[in-house]
# Entry
Amino acid sequence: MTTAAHRMFEADEASRALGMELVEAGDGMATVRMKITAAMVNGHEIAHGGYLFLLADTTFACACNSHGPVTVAAGADITFVTSARLGDELTAVAHERTRYGRNGIYDVTVYRDTPGHREVVAEFRGRSRTISPPKDPS
# Structure
């Protein structure tokens, strides 16, 4: 099923250029995957936190836009639980916690996929705001 989130992701050059893959989106949830490449590793030989934030933020955007109206971030926080490394396959899963009026709260967990289990790498909380449709100039 193609949702507004799928259409938004197809137009998201930044996320797709980093190799992100939208696995699923709909009804206030989304799952996105990304592999850590050499270009994403910092001077400590771990994934730069900005890339982890970007993965979580993209997943958040897909979840909050799955309802249809254009929705943007009003704010977000991330907690890095452990480091990601070169070659890690990461999966981010977003779930809507609540929507009220034009606002929403979404939680995203970023996992490292390993044989047999998932290890939490980061926890992200995003606050969304639905943008009002443009006013008709007539």
Summary: Helices lie at 4-10, 13-17, 49-64. The first helix runs from residue 4 to 10. The radius of gyration is 15 Å. The chain has a mean pLDDT of 93.
